Structure formats: C-alpha cells, structure tokens
Amino acid sequence: MTSLAAWPYPRWVAHRGAGKLAPENTMVAFRMGASYGYRMFECDAKLSKDGVLFLMHDTDLKRTTNAEGTGSDRTMGELAQLDAGAWHSRSFAGENLPTLEALARWCLANHLHLNVEIKPTPGQEERTGFASGELMNRIWPAKPCRRCSPRSNPIRCAAQRPPRPTFRAGCWSTNGPMARARPTSGSRRNSAASRWC
Q: What is the pTM assigned to this prediction?
C-alpha cells in the first residue's frame, strides 16, 4: 500500500470569502473570513470586456449587484462602479467587485492560500483560462500554495496549460466513482471529487 503525502493546504476553505456571512466574492468577505481564522479561500473569476479578471460567480449581474446583464459585456471600470454588497444587507452597501489580481495580492501579503475557480461566460472559456494562467504565473511566486480549479469542463482545464503555468491546477468533477462514493463514518459527503491534472 502506497502512503499519500501529507496534505499541504488548510483543511477548511472559506467559500467565496466568508460563506453567507458577507457578500460573496468581495474583499470584505475575504477579510471577514480571515478574521474568523480561515487560511484558504475559494473565489470565482470571470473576464471583463477589456480583459480584466474580476470576481463573480454568475454570468448575470442581477443576483449579486445593482445591475442587470452579462458581467463580461462591461469594462472593469464599469464593473467597479456597481454595488456588490447591498443585495446581501444594508451594512455592506457600496462594496464593489474586486479584481482577481487584487485578491491574489492580498492573499500573498497575508500568507493565505487561494483556490481560483474559473467561471467563464459561455464562449470565453479559453480566453478566461489563458488570462488566469498568465495572471497567476506573473504575480504568484513558484511555491506549492497555489491552486487553480476549473469545474468539470476540460476546455477550461486545457486552457490553463498554455503558457505552461507553473501553479498546480486541479479539475473538479461531479461525475465518476469519487463523486458517487459513500461517505465514511463521521464525514460529510462532498458533491464533487477532485483530481490534479
């Protein structure tokens, strides 16, 4: 039996910053998650009209901002003017949509881990994957605390390979034996299984 190497990352990951405690994918959410002791975060990245990676889960702006339409149809300057906090609660009104670069630099400065989920607007999978790979290669030092995980889309995963990213890439899948595996006693079932690619 082969023993596995020790898991090098924190065991708990703050989803989109602070779960439901703050507006998802905003800097206030990541700061709040860190204040609760989280050392690793998951975020969602999309590409703006002018090629800037920004944080947002949905393709449409309506659920988490004060605007409607597709986020990738706007420039980063336009996206930065939107209110991404008021939908959550009055105390977060005025919070804006941050760039992936701003979050990554904040994580680096605070010695935090980051799992970037590439969430491209349909038709922008390759461009978003390339931009993510280039950004992370440019700003994140070559050490094993980085991970970029596209969800269940091999095009997104392949798009990260050029220009030969040096960060670890993971693929998430909701199919296959790991996703259907029964949980062991005392564990919670995960809706997705992961593998490194």
A: 0.74
